Amino acid sequence: MNDLLHWVVVLNWAAVFATLSATIRQAIPITLGSMSGISSERSGIVNIGIEGMMLMSAFSGYMMNVYLSSLDIGMADTTRLLLSVAVGILTGGLLGLLHAVLCIQYKVDHIISGTVINLLAVGITGYFYDATAETKGKIPNLIKNPWKGDHYLKDVGVVLFDKDIITYLTFIIVAVMTFWLFNTTWGLRTRSIGENPRAADTLGINVYRLQYTNLFLSGALAGLAGVYLTLADVGVFERGMTAGKGFIALAVMIFGKWHPMGALGGALLFGFLTALQNQLQFFGVNMPHQLVSLLPYVVTVVVLAGFVGQARPPAHVGQAYETEGH
Amino acid sequence: MLARIRALAQTLLIPLLSIFTALLVGSLMILLAGRDPIAAYEALLEGALLEPRGLVQSLLKTTPLILAGLAVGFAFKGGLFNIGAQGQLIMGSVVAAWVGSATMFHGLPIWLHITLGFASGALAGAIWGGIPGALKAYSGAHEVITTIMFNFIAGRIAEWLISNGSADGRIPPGPLSDPNSGALARSPMVEETARLPIIYRYPPSSDLNVGIFIAVAVAVLILLLLNRTTFGFELRMVGLNPNAARYAGINVKRQTILTMAIAGALAGTAGVIQTLGVNGFYEANQSLSLGFDSITVSLLAANHPIGIIFSAFLFGAMEQGATRMQLTGAAVELTVVIQALILMFIAAPQIIRYLYRIGDAGGSGQTFSSGWGQR
Prior knowledge:
The structure holds two protein chains of two kinds. Chain A is mainly alpha-helical. Chain A is 70% helix and 0% strand. Chain A contains 14 helices and no strands. Chain B has a domain at 64-320. Chain B has 14 helices and two strands; from the N terminus they run H-H-H-H-H-H-E-E-H-H-H-H-H-H-H-H.
């Protein structure tokens, strides 16, 4: 405990900046995952398949990068990585459509359909996993911190300017999603079919088409979260590397009450706690690391139970909708 | 009689065709990897069922899947999505390891030691399930989030309990670590008096314990509890419509906590059998995939307690056979793909009906869960 106090009192600025930087790094895939959840759930479809969509896209994006790296055609790094990211996003989008077909066309229970996607992802990525695959570098190499060396802006620069494109894109996506949901016709219609599809249908909104579109979007966002893991964060694919991030994204979505800004806040809080416990371990706090690592999970439960209160989901989420004859 | 047989054939037709079609797709994947599907499936079947060792291992793998599957299915019946079977199982497992090995319980008679192990493991699971239930009932914290968080928390606490501490001695070993296990982190071996009776020995290391019978008996008990008692009726009523249940005078909060506690006790029991029956100790990550497999097992059986026995056996046997199948060059993850496809086809029977041109018997689209519904 003394170490902890010491750590807090003698503020270690390097540690503070490292923690802030790691906070963002941890929060990005969870934020994108929760945006995926919002896009789906606001249109009335529960999506617990985010975990699987992330995993499958992480794999396909990475394998595309492996394949393009193995070609000896002098392709520019930027082109190769952008193509790989596109493949990952498309993979996610297609899984989103699979979820939509199962939920809408075949009226499969949403939880079951999501479970099918999660299983498929674990199975397929594990089956085709290749431990010997090699690539020629990842996304962060494309951007460099403009302040090098002893410049006083160095640390701030690491937090703000030494990130990859997907990180910046994520914050833009959150803003765009907020605008989309609350200030556009498409967003208004999306919210209306999540609350009362019958009423929306009566007013002439094509419920199914909108759900298909939004589910593709949901999958694509989860796909971006997946390629972030392999192409920007870790750099390689590992079996089951999403490690529950898709589910934590759902938690964050509910935590943020299905609002993009709220979800971002939740993701940053979770990211901060994860980063903090890593730092505490790194700086040798004299406690078993297993117990220190409980921090983000315990705080999430406490905050959820104590401060957030009753979360109110979109009224029609999780139920099949049947149009009245066309 | 004939009519009943025909009706049975009708109900089994779709599941059987689903399994067949999933295997067919799986064989395409084996071909895609350049291996022989016939040899792979032969090995799968042989490794899982056709020899005593395989069959014993299949049954051992089936046991926790039945109980954890029931933990998920029981909660679903009450309208709750229990993703926390993993954590509840870990808690049951680790507490049973403590009861089985602690000095204060040395020298107990066999029946008492085992009963104590089951009671405390089930209680630990019940608490680990009951807390998310209570949080749901009184603060509205959604059980999907809290049970996932509780999975992580249980895993880390158990890891700490059995950890060896740091090499320089600054961090002491966990209270339940085995000083004689060397670099391996695990709990001490449980006493002989706490080991479950063996009913079939297949040397060198495949012993079938009584766990499978306990699991089947529990499944029957759960069926009776759900369909033959007032409690079960109220539970299903809350599951179908919490508001209607509240107007009918049912204490929904109490029902929510009890449902989750019983579900937790079921998963905890699975953990007890893993420790006292199979391993004899608790080690980290010993049941990593069980928690999520149990969700699939339950969904595959449409949350029916007796159906769960069969879907758990299907999963247990496939998991066991996969280790043999791997020798033919087909990776074990293939079985996960097959399981996913089986679940998909059974949940969307129209696909199968279309593929095999079977007429529609009408009725589709079951809803097992009530989404993120409030209570």
